[in-house]
């Protein structure tokens, strides 16, 4: 498949395609040979039952063409070509015609030699859950479907919301910890929203104090920040610190990844402007850029990145674009709360490209990976072994 058209398909699936690209995709799909390539691409990179392969290609094509025409009609009008923003569910609208087969409640994997491996331990996708540590030292478990409320705090089981207290003179801190296999949304007293990914811990004030910077600490993990402007907070800047690394914000959207098992801290700017700094240097980012703070040598570098791929976790997707298998399995291990073993270390550097949903079973995602980059895998308890 032509790399250019493959990029357009990826853009369609990840909500990045513009009108011109949609027209190119529609024209390309009018060729029967290209249609076959498209079917194979979707089957390999987007369908979630590749081991069965039951998949209505005609309906899939009709769905994508219908959506293309719908978006073209919707966004033409004022003379300006606007970027098309698709709902994340479009990806799975395309593959909604697949039929899954499960012979039992246990996960089943058919390996290359025809043998079947089962695991009695159920590995489920992550869900909304967190542990809240209050200023008095008490802990509260927050889970999907359960509510929690005090005078200043309210949780629906999916998000935690703090009520603003303008009389606050002394800063008191809470900690929100997201376990492996979890995620949660936090709304601070200034209106800032923070989406927390799996295996993440954030320290933050119960209420910000007027006249002081709005400072939170990402102790470890990954978080997406939608920060209220300084102009709405008496000029107070917003700061995120992690050890010797600091991000200073006026009002913007950005993503920070600072996992303990990685050697760098990555800050990716979506909108606005941020300054990234350590003890000796300071660099400014513009939208579409990512800073790489190397923990070992204390250096900061900046590069242009695909923002949609970096932040796709917040939209319920895994978007991998030529990512090493080691990095991909690290992401999956956090979301599904599993350990990963590479029997062949050479597999760690193999590249994979695809888009899958965070709602899918790990077995289905592993089947996709198996079909493209590895010979076999096995699930033993909560450990995935790649061969």
From TrEMBL:
Q: Which residues form the Protein FecR C-terminal domain?
A: 318-386
Q: Where are the transmembrane segments?
A: none
Q: What superkingdom heads the lineage? A: Bacteria
Q: Which InterPro entries match?
A: FecR (IPR006860), FecR_C (IPR032508), Ferrdict_sens_TM (IPR012373)
Extent of the signal sequence:
none
A Gene Ontology molecular function term for this protein is: sigma factor antagonist activity
Annotated ranges, domain FecR protein: 179-274
Q: Which PANTHER family match?
A: PERIPLASMIC SIGNAL SENSOR AND SIGMA FACTOR ACTIVATOR FECR-RELATED, PROTEIN FECR
Under which name does UniProt file this protein?
FecR family protein
Q: What is the lineage of its organism?
A: Bacteria, Pseudomonadati, Bacteroidota, Flavobacteriia, Flavobacteriales
